[in-house]
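[retry 2/3] UPF0597 protein HMPREF1526_00417: previous attempt timed out, resubmitting with same input.
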Amino acid sequence: MQPTDIRYQNYIQILKEELVPAMGCTEPIAIAYGAAKAREILGCLPETVLVEASGNIIKNVKSVVVPNTDGLKGIEAAAAAGIVAGHADQILEVIASVSDAEKQAIRTYLDEHEITVRPAEGDVIFDIILTLRSGDSYVKLRIADYHTNIVHVEKDGVLLLEAGHTAENVQASTLTDRSSLSVEGILDFVETMCIDDVREMVERQIEYNSAIAQAGIDGNWGANIGSVLLHHYGNDVKIRARAMAAAGSDARMSGCELPVIIVSGSGNQGITASVPVIEYAKELQVSHDKLIQAVTLSDLLTIHLKTGIGRLSAYCGAVSAGCAAGSAIAWLQGGGYEDIAHTLVNSLATVSGVICDGAKPSCAAKIAAAVDAGILGHQMYCDGQQFYGGDGIVTKGVENTIRNIGRLGHDGMRETDKEIIRIMTGL
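[retry 2/3] UPF0597 protein HMPREF1526_00417: success.
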């Protein structure tokens, strides 16, 4: 693929849009970002706060620790952190710099001010509406479709921003069209690209995500899935790939204040797409540039798999990233298009349907299972084994199977998503 090819430029731009830093689970951080921005526009600390959130936002914020809050969880904590200590110009690192005094101030604000949470009206999957009031003044701000997409701002009856209506799973116009992505095109791009076009952003992903994975192994975070795997299964690279990715998630879900580079709006997916590939690259002693290529391959495959599903779903996003990581590992071991395509199909057939029941420590175990399926998918192909079209949701051709996965995650699991939210909220 030539740099002058429109697809080449699209792929570069997609990576720039997706590989961004975030500290903490991205859904509560999106609330903190919106709250910080709204407070900035209001010009003072609000006396009351109303947060209207779609079911998937409620699901993903309910059980995860908001970083830099001394262990607080939930929508109220995320909003308070953004209001009291947030820096909106830092976007998804909005609460990366919080002093000890500000941590106490967040708790005080929660104790002394009214923060009301309600389900958002309508069917938009990703929807956050914040209304901050002080005296007779108010600011209403809406984020929809993805984490940093502010689509509406009004102050005291004056419209400051209106970015148009939102619709479920619509590819927001501010993002590059993902329809040019294909397994064949992604592989062509990775094998022919100028490494320097992606070097800075992928090297940052390798650095950040390796650091939080190591912190997860070294510390006591969540359910310590990484340490459990290493203790009971040994130190083989197949185990390390699962353990390190799980450890990064455990740390992140439990309030670790290290940043990650996200993929498809998710830090867990960013970790899963990169860390297993990094472990295999170390084991195989490949060049640094080849590692960059492999991580880029995994990132783009993850994005491709997730495009049809949507940003938030009942379908666990770690599955997409784990299957993509398995395919990048296959490439590191000399695999070509056929190897990668069959690895994807084999692994997707194995773990598609794992549910997303919000952000919390069990995400780490799901990541371990997804990476294991990705590695197994490659080992199956190496031994001449595969799943065939007609085997369940598998159909002939990797792109057709990917479309089936998108249909399953976006359409088929919609009612499952609603039931999960009802179970989690006790309704």
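[retry 2/3] UPF0597 protein HMPREF1526_00417: Residues 168-172 have pLDDT under 50 and may be disordered.
[retry 2/3] clearing retry counter.
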